[in-house]
Amino acid sequence: MAIDKFVNRHIGPRDKDISEMLAVIGVSSLEELIDQTVPSNIRLGNRLICPMFDRARILSQDPSSCSKNKVFNTYIGMGWYDTITPAVICAIFLRTLHGTPLIRLIRQRFHREG
Asked: Which residues are CB-contacts of 114 (< 8 A; sequence separation ≥ 6)?
C-alpha cells in the first residue's frame, strides 16, 4: 500500500468534508456541534495542547523510557461467544476474506450452527 493512500484514509476529514457534515447536521461550526452535544460540566474549558512526538525522536532522547512499558494480557479472540451475527454481516465478511484458512474454519462453524 502506498503511503499517500494510507495518509489520505487516516489523516482525518478534510475541510470540505467537515463543511458538508455540518450542513447535514444543521450547525455552523464544530464548536457549535460540540456545544450542543457535550455537556458543559465535563468539558475542559481551555484548549488541550498535545505536542506531537515521533517514536524515533523519543527513543533517541531517552532510550530507558522503554523499560517503563508494562505488558498486559489481551483476551481478544480468545473465545467463541454465543451471539447472533446478522446474515448480511456474515455474507459480507465471508465474501471479502474467503481465501484465508481462518475464514474456511469460520465458514464450517457457521454452516454447522446456521
From this structure: 90
Count of the separate structural domains present in the chain: 2
DSSP sequence for 60-71: HH-GGGGGG---
SS3 for 102? helix
Comparing C-alpha atoms, which of 24, 22, 17, 23 is closest to residue 34? 22
70 in a structural domain: no
Inside any domain, residue 57? no
- Report which residue type is found at 64: S
**CA–CA distances in Å: residue 106 to residues 17, 55, 66, 102, 109:** 37, 37, 38, 6, 5
Candidates 13, 8, 100, 17; CA nearest to 25 is: 17
Alpha-carbon distance of 6 to 77, in angstroms, equals: 26
pLDDT along the chain (114 residues), means of 10: 58 85 92 90 81 75 78 73 74 66 68 56
- Per the structure block, which three cell numbers stand in for 30? 464544530
